[in-house]
Amino acid sequence: MSDPRLESLRAAAPGLRLATAPDELLHYGRDWTRRWTPAPLAVALPATVDEVQAVLRWASAEGVAVVPSGGRTGLSGGAVAANGELVLSLERMRRVLAFDPVDRTLTVEAGAPLETVQEAARQHGLQYPVDFASRGSCTIGGNIATNAGGIRVLRYGNTREWVAGLKLVTASGELLDLNRGLVKNSSGYDLRHLAIASEGTLGVVVEATLKLAPPPPPVATLLLALPSFEVLMQVFQALRGRLALEAFEFFTGTCLRHVVAHGAQAPFEREYPYYVVLDAAAEGPDDERLLEAFGHCAEQGWVEDGVVAQSQAQAAQLWRLREGITEALAPHLPYKNDVAVRVSAMPAFLAEAQALLAAEYPEFEVAWFGHIGDGNLHINVLKPTELGQEAFVARCAEVTAHLAGLVERHGGTISAEHGIGLVKKPYLGCTRSAAEIGIMRALRAALDPAGILNPGKLFDPPER
Q1: Domain residues of the chain, as ranges?
Q2: d(CA 57, CA 108)
Q3: What's the distance, Cα to Cα, between the start and end of the chain in Å?
Q4: Would you call 417 exposed, middle or buried from its count of C-beta atoms within 10 A (0-12, 13-18, 19+)?
Q5: What's the CATH fold of domain 219-326?
Q6: Which pLDDT score, from 0 to 100, does residue 333 have?
Q7: 175-178: strand order across its sheet
Q8: Is domain 4-89 classified as CATH 3.30.43.10?
Q9: Alpha-carbon distance 319 to 114, whole Å?
Q10: Which pLDDT score, from 0 to 100, does residue 463 have?
Q11: Are 140 and 106 in contact (CB under 8 A)?
Q12: Which residues does the UniProt record annotate as the domain FAD-binding PCMH-type (predicted)?
């Protein structure tokens, strides 16, 4: 029997596409965490802003919780619908709406995949520089909701820096047009920036005006093999002083083994414990600056081997070694931590974090990778085959509490770019003070007094 609430939703939003089949509820009710059993009421797939507004007016009137949904590539449980919520998927709202050559902006619907936006920018001789491996499936709305970073934060910053304006539908169904693409706007609070990184708890992003950048300079891609963890920051500092770095990513030999087993080509005849893949502005693979920088690091004993890509195809192969890690590790059901500290605090933090994990995870395989140039580490603990999922998660959660304390002591964050969601909710207090969390709660209550937008994410609702 059809739920009577869905009949009233159909009446409130005639023509709205609703999905209720079990496989659709499973697909739309979860993200990449796979730790919660999806149990949504239904999936609403609006095609227009008007339909989004109608859905939220209905949800507010009926008291139905709503989980906004983009590409569901998140790793924090932020898009999970496990308690009878209505999933509001923006995947049908994926159009590129306008390009402004004077302002150098691109206006898109929130469901547009990142790769679509990047290609649209290239067609106009420009670039949208935010980038990460899930570019083909993640959406602009989801990127904005988590202030996504990725592999080029070192050069271009996070998503926040590239949002010139956005349209947000509030819990009551009101449409807010925030900043409207203005370069300067000192007329009070910038609600645009409140919406960015709010994980769908303050409203639903339906449209964004994005800044574009000039096309990137010619770059050379290098893969370096490092003998130890300790030299990583020396290599970064030396190269940053000699080259214009576009990206600087590191990963361990453990990561490389899994990516090669997943189909990538091994870069060297022997294995090394640590690797760095980087892009640097250069006129070609024989640029003297590259050779000098590599020679300096080799002379210091910081680099044991290396390769400079001789073609675009080879550069793609080298980047696959980094970008393929998440997919290669997925079958092992990894427990993920996504932490960040100031770059200057990285050496001390790395040493302590490595010691902590070695002591607390002696029986587990741990895969490290991340964005060293912006202080962001991804720590993946792989589940042993013989250990049950619940026991594995419980064991990892114990150590995450210790890791959160370590992050707090170093003035960092327990979530660098994946959001808080459900996974990191217990550790929000290690990153934000009680006063900050109180203000966040007040803002959330002001914009969503009934608490229908992505409830349970970021922090629990106050007890009534």
Answers
A1: 4-89, 96-211, 219-326, 333-430
A2: 24
A3: 33
A4: buried
A5: Alpha-Beta Plaits (3.30.70)
A6: 87
A7: 96-100, 105-109, 204-211, 163-169, 175-178
A8: yes
A9: 18
A10: 52
A11: no
A12: 36-215
Whole-prediction pTM value?
0.91
The percent of the chain in helix, strand and coil, each rounded to the nearest 5, is 40, 20, 40
Q: Which two tokens stand for residue 301?
A: 């004993």
Element (H, E) at 235: helix 232-242
Alpha helices of 303-454 — where are they, by DSSP H?
A: 312-323, 325-329, 346-360, 389-409, 434-447
- Cα gap 209→137, rounded to integer Å: 20
Euclidean distance between CA atoms 414 and 156, whole angstroms: 22
The sign of the torsion formed by the CA atoms of 324, 329, 333, 339 equals negative
At 109, which amino acid appears?
A: E
Domains 96-211 and 219-326 share a fold: no
- CATH pick for 333-430 out of 3.30.70.2740, 3.40.50.300, 2.120.10.30, 2.40.160.60: 3.30.70.2740
Statement: 96-211 belongs to CATH 1.10.3720.10: no
User: What percentage of the chain carries pLDDT values higher than 70?
Assistant: 99
